[in-house]
Amino acid sequence: ILSKNLISLEALCDWYDGNYYDFLHGGARLASLIYTDYNDLINLKLNSMLDENMKYNLPIVMAILSHYKGDPLIYDICTRIVSELPENDDSLKNVRSVMLGEAGVICTQGTYGMAHYYEEKKKLVKPLSMSGDEKISSFAKETIRILDNNIAQANSRGKSDDEMGKIIYD
Length: 170
Known about the structure:
With about 170 residues, the protein is mainly alpha-helical. It has helices spanning about 10-15, 20-25, 25-35, 40-65, 75-85, 90-100, 115-125, 135-170.
């Protein structure tokens, strides 16, 4: 059994060799298995890495954050990243993806499970749209627009599934 005392988050970050996807599935994944819940220790370390060298450490930080599947506790560091990146930076798409996280097993939530999932994410993002930081506010509004489109599509699929069910089972 790996001990948190034996493998520090810093040591895992040293595994990054410039290949984002290798690190995503290697060091970042292992970090999330050792540190199963996002906490102050991880937050402090990731923020200090961004302080040291945002450009180099951003892929490392994003890879680690991606394994926390959109946990609201990661929103603060994500908004920090948004506020420090240029408005049209390609990394913003990754930040949005990390914040929205994975839906997990939605099929057990019924026909409209994805729509409900997107609604919950929208509730979490909405306060950011009122941020005093224009970059964060703009980012949040664009994220809400994307979520609204996803909600409409998921509801449309759900309605189609309901109609198909009536045809098949009636």
